[in-house]
Specification:
Blueprint (H helix, E strand, L loop, with lengths): L1 E7 L3 H4 L5 E3 L6 H11 L11 E4 L2 E5 L13 E5 L6
Parallel strand pairs: 1-5
Antiparallel strand pairs: 1-2, 3-4, 3-5
């Protein structure tokens, strides 16, 4: 299956501009997708555990503590990195 991936906050989208889709096994879960994402990020682009995670519009928690739902082909996984500043 293929899922759409959106990473927002800081400069994560520019860390790997080609990383907007993940190809996963048909029985994959959110945890599988996050593990696949982590493998593709360089060490300087690793996402902090405080990132928010949403699946097709449903908030699941943070990277550190989230619900791991089954994925369906075409789902959108959104990871929102914390942003600080004024």
């Amino acid at each position: 299956m293929n899922i759409r991936l959106v990473i927002s906050g800081r400069s994560y989208p520019t860390s790997n501009a080609a990383l907007d889709r993940l190809a996963l096994a048909d029985d994959s879960t959110v945890n599988d997708a996050l593990a696949a994402l982590d493998e593709q990020l360089t060490d300087d682009a690793k996402l902090p555990p405080t990132c928010l995670v949403a699946l097709s519009g449903k908030h699941l928690g943070t990277l550190a503590e989230h619900e791991s739902c089954p994925l369906r082909d075409g789902d959108e996984l959104v990871v929102i990195a914390p942003v600080a500043g004024g």
